[in-house]
């Protein structure tokens, strides 16, 4: 199933669209069985989406950093 979703995302990006993935965790948790945003970022940046520019954003970043990332996304840099 994951491969199918990733292939769909790749197709959309190749057609000129952008994508974002919502992750429920900023950091690892022993209580919740889910990957953190940093784990997924590394997985996608070096793996399945390595041919694309990948970035992450989360609520613990400084506002200035979040604004810059969102502006770059808007400008289609990611």
Strand and helix map with partners:
Elements: H1 2-14, H2 37-46, H3 63-74
Would you summarize the structure shown here?
This protein has one domain.
The tally of beta strands, per DSSP, is 0
Strand content: under 5%
Number of helices: 3
Helix and strand element order: HHH
Number of domains: 1
Principal-axis shape equals: flat
Radius of gyration: 13 Å
Secondary-structure content class:
mainly alpha
The largest β sheet comes out as:
none
Mean pLDDT: 87
Distance between the termini: 24 Å
Helix content: 40-55%
Low-confidence stretches: none
Structure description:
With about 80 residues, this protein is mainly α. The chain has one domain. The chain has three helices and no strands. The mean pLDDT is about 85.
Features:
78 residues, mainly alpha, 3 helices, 45% helix
